[in-house]
Each structure stands twice: as C-alpha cells, then as structure tokens.
Amino acid sequence: MTVSAGLATACTTTTEGTASPSTAGSSATGAPSADPEVPKVPAPLDASKYVGDTCAIVPKDVLTSLRYTDPGVYQAKGDTPFTKAGPSCAWKLRGEGIGLLVTLGTGNRDRGAGGLAGLYAGYRNKTYVRFLERAPDVEGYPVVYWGIVDERPKGSCGLDVGIADDLTFDVYAQGYQGPDDSCGVATQVASSIIKTLKGA
User: Which residues of 147-159 are buried (b: 16+ CB within 10 A; e: fewer)?
Assistant: First the structure.
C-alpha cells in the first residue's frame, strides 16, 4: 500500500457500495442527535483562516522535526468521497511509506454532521466508523481515536480533535513503527494545531 492510497483510505470508507467520508458522514437519520457521551468543547476555536490553506495549520518547525521537508499537498473540500469531509493537507516521506494527513472537517459541519457528535453517530450506527476510543485531551480539547479498524498495532493512528461542538480536525499518521510512534506523531501534530489556532 502506498502512503497516498493509505491516506486517502483514512478519510473515506465504503458502506453498502457507497463511499462516504469517515471523519464525519451523516447518520442514517440525518444530523446526529444529542449524545451524552460526546465530550463538549470548552472554548471553541476559529479555524476559518485555514480552510483555503490547510497546509499552513501545522507549524513548519513541527513538520521539520518529523522530517517532513517537502511541501504538503493541499486538497480543497469537494464533492468526491475523498474530499467531502473538508479541506486537507498531506505530507509524505518519499520512499519510506510514512505519511501524515490533516483534514479540517468543515464539509461535515456544513452537512450537519460535524464535530465529535458526527463521529459518535457514525460509530453508533456502524456506518463508517467501527472503532472508537476516547483519548487523553490535547491542550484541553477532547480527542478520540477512530477508524474502520484499530490500525495502531500496525503503525497507523487516526485521531479527531473537537475544536467546536460542530467542528473537528483529523490527524492521521501512517507507516510508523507502532502505536506509540504513530499516535505520538498524531498527538504532537494535534497539539501544534491547537496552539496555532490559539495564536500561540
């Protein structure tokens, strides 16, 4: 599996023959209903500045420390299964099978299926998320690990961070040595994004 294919798969899955974004598709009954288990966001953050340049949401010094020296590849929100969740940016280490993908879930929000509530709804309905686990908060913001399956033992880790009750960003790290490496990278990147959004 190439990094680009794996990163694309991280954002989408196929359910009953129809591909749909996995970071937050709509539930079978429309917008997700209130779920007491969904963690609330204490202080919403404004990410609108990065909708048109999602690659800029991760500080360059963080990318350099992770050996990502090539520019990220930006993908705008669109109507394809790979772009409905929202704008994204992908980085990869050429020839190493290692990659990083950050997606801002504005497309999910626009469809009424945004935030961690959308992710929990997908898990409850088993429509596009089969694995969901609460993770330690990052910089005070709620986090969940998620995926079609738990890929952490294989060196890939996807996490969603709630930055508003109707908006998340997703970080997916692929091709690392194991869960500590992949989730460590994803958490480090998530922390840097929160700091960026806070203007730190």
Answer: bbebbbeebbbbb
Q: Which two tokens stand for residue 22?
A: 């996995």
Measured between alpha carbons, how far is 198 from 193 in angstroms, rounded to an integer?
9
For residue range 34-86, list pLDDT tens digits in order: 677 899 999 999 999 999 999 999 999 999 999 999 999 999 998 877 789 99
61/59 Cα distance (integer angstroms): 6
Largest CA distance in the chain: 45
Residues 6+ apart with CB under 8 A from 135: 143, 144, 145, 159, 183, 187
**CA-to-CA distance for 121 and 21, rounded, in angstroms?**
13
The verdict on pTM exceeding 0.85 is no
DSSP one-letter code for 27: B
Could you write out the DSSP letters of every residue in 71-120?
PPEEE---SSTTTTT--EEEEEETTTTEEEEEEETHHHHHTT--HHHHHH
Residues in the chain, pLDDT under 70: 1-34, 200
The phi, psi pair for 114, rounded to 5°, reads -90, 180
Return the exposure string of 53-80: e unless at least 16 CB atoms fall within 10 Å of the residue's CB, then b: ebbebbeeebbeebebeeebeebebeee
What CATH fold (topology level) applies to the domain 3-9+52-198?
A: Protein Transport Mog1p; Chain A (3.40.1000)
From the CB of residue 28, how many other CB atoms can be counted at a distance below 10 Å?
12
Rounded Cα distance between 4 and 163, Å, is 26
